[in-house]
Amino acid sequence: MVSPGEQEVKITGTAAWRLRKVGILDVDLCGPSIPHMLNVRSKHVHQCDAGWVPVYANPEQTIAVMSIGFLLENPDDAVVWRGPKKTALIKQFVSDVAWGELDYLIVDTPPGTSDEHLAVVESLRGHGVEGAVLVTTPQAVSTGDVRREITFCKKTGLRILGIVENMSGFACPHCSECTNIFSKGGGEELAKQTGVPFLGCVPLDPQLSSSLEEGGDFIQAFPLSATFSAINKIAQKVMSGAAVRR
Amino acid sequence: MFISSGPAGQSAQERQRQHMARGLPKQKPILGVKQVVVVASGKGGVGKSTTAVNLALGIAANDSSKSVGLLDADIYGPSIPKLMNLRGNPELTDKNLMRPLVNYGVLCMSMGFLVEETAPIVWRGLMVMSAIERLLRQVEWGQLDYLVIDMPPGTGDVQLSITQNIPISGAVIVSTPQDIALLDARRGAEMFRKVNVPVLGLVQNMSVFHCPNCNHKTHIFGEDGATELANSLGVEVLGDIPLHINIREMSDKGQPVVVSKPDSPEAKAYLKVAAQVVKRLPAPSA
């Protein structure tokens, strides 16, 4: 999945904005970005009777986060692990974290179709996974990789809620000319070709990018932006797509 | 099993290190390959494969007497076939080695040539290790001055397998200016330090966008972050590659910008990086 992190954070932000309780599980063990994006980088995980207590990203405690970033002595340390160790930790993230009552648990995976993905699918199998959201940028090398992700989902029986086309078009802040730096339409075309729902496009937005860099709340800061509108629509489709199966 | 106290003065850490080193595979150079340069990132989606391709072509363009190969070690998301406009199953030589596919004068090998385009590689560690072994040892590279290896994102099985298996002359780390990418680039650099691979420097990709309409510059992914990281790692920024629609358009067509638009600023940026990389490699032994 191509740069899913950003999307996970924003979908979560939107769902929480609608007063749902959401958990984010960051299984990108080699590159855990979620703590940074939610401005909880320096936090640590504590234990309680029920297990590990997740880190809460907001005072209302409606966004719960678990990431290897919280377990490292220095959050910027390299995690150079082979598969079995990664699998074991991911299983613990699923079984030993005291998530509490959640409306949604969103899992951010690294690119590829490897140990982390298998571990997540296997550990969550008994818990009723609603499905997968696949994020791609529009150009051919990305959609090519996501094609493989689609096959992976089909093979493992993971329902695909849809494809998001990220970094789709850039509007110059000076002259408003839109340039398709990473191409356009590739994600939508892929969805059509593979019979998978298309959830929408998110434009390339430097404000979103810098907001995530600073761990700021993009939704609070730019509620009127086209980017927020796009992400909001995607979040709504994901939530209704997930609800359909219940 | 017995517990040895070791000679006086030998620390427990040193004994552990020696003990663990015994279990590791011996590093053996690839037959015929003089120098290996790995292109890594840490984070996915920063343009590592595009950089690896244009770097390999750049090295060849800067010195046409050198022979260059390109190995796509991104097992899960092999991009080299698309970027180099190559497809098809490799032939086998008499000695049962795979013959690399060639385009623009560069010899290429990728998992993408061995599997179907839509097939995911859903493999656990051990199978990955054996696939990497195959891509390293069972290819008829011939005599190469440089082998550029496009690594997958992350710091896991593939990276460990490669660094433990073959001697590597240097690593180039690609990042965008964003903090999030830089943090992972730092992890990548740390990993190479742990396994004693010299980090040649950083490439700051997608550094700035020039609007083709009004030429206004926008730093979409932040500004200059790589310079700080380079300083803190004690390495240099080998070059800045701008975010230009040409790069993606030509990549999608399988005509990397270094060969298809050699006079463009983007191509020149890659050529500069290639020159810097070669400058920082140890002089090849005769």
Query: Got a strand count of chain B?
Result: 10
Secondary structure category of chain A = alpha/beta
Q: What's the order of the H and E elements of chain A?
A: HEHEEEEHEHEHEEEHEHHH
SSE series of chain B: HEHEHEEHEHEHEEEHEHHH
Largest sheet: number of strands, sense, barrel closure of chain A: 4 strands, mixed
Pair with the biggest interface = A-B, 59 and 57 residues
The largest sheet of chain B, given as strand count, sense and whether it forms a barrel, is:
8 strands, mixed
Features:
heterodimer; A: 246 residues; alpha/beta; four-stranded mixed beta sheet; 17% strand; globular; B: 286 residues; two-stranded antiparallel sheet
Task: Tell me what you see in this structure.
The complex is a heterodimer of chains A (246) and B (286). By secondary structure, chain A is an alpha/beta fold. Helices cover 40% and strands 17% of the residues of chain A. The longest helix of chain A is centred in the last third of the chain and has 19 residues. The mean pLDDT of chain A is 85. Chain B is of the alpha/beta class and 286 residues long. The N and C termini of chain B lie far apart (46 Å). Helices cover 37% and strands 17% of the residues of chain B. In chain B, strands 3-4-2-5-1-6-7-10 form an 8-stranded mixed β-sheet, sandwiched between helices. In chain B, strands 8-9 form a two-stranded antiparallel ribbon.
Topology:
The complex is a heterodimer of chains A (246) and B (286).
Chain A: H1 4-17, E1 22-26, H2 34-37, E2 46-48, E3 51-53, E4 55-56, E5 63-67, H3 83-95, E6 104-108, H4 115-124, E7 132-136, H5 140-155, E8 160-165, E9 170-171, E10 178-179, H6 186-194, E11 198-201, H7 206-214, H8 218-221, H9 226-244
Helix pairs in contact in A: 1-9, 3-4, 5-6
Chain B: H1 12-23, E1 33-40, H2 48-62, E2 68-72, H3 80-83, E3 101-103, E4 106-110, H4 125-137, E5 144-150, H5 157-165, E6 170-175, H6 179-194, E7 199-204, E8 209-210, E9 217-218, H7 225-233, E10 237-240, H8 245-252, H9 257-260, H10 265-280
Parallel strand pairs in B: 1-5, 1-6, 2-4, 2-5, 6-7, 7-10
Antiparallel strand pairs in B: 3-4, 8-9
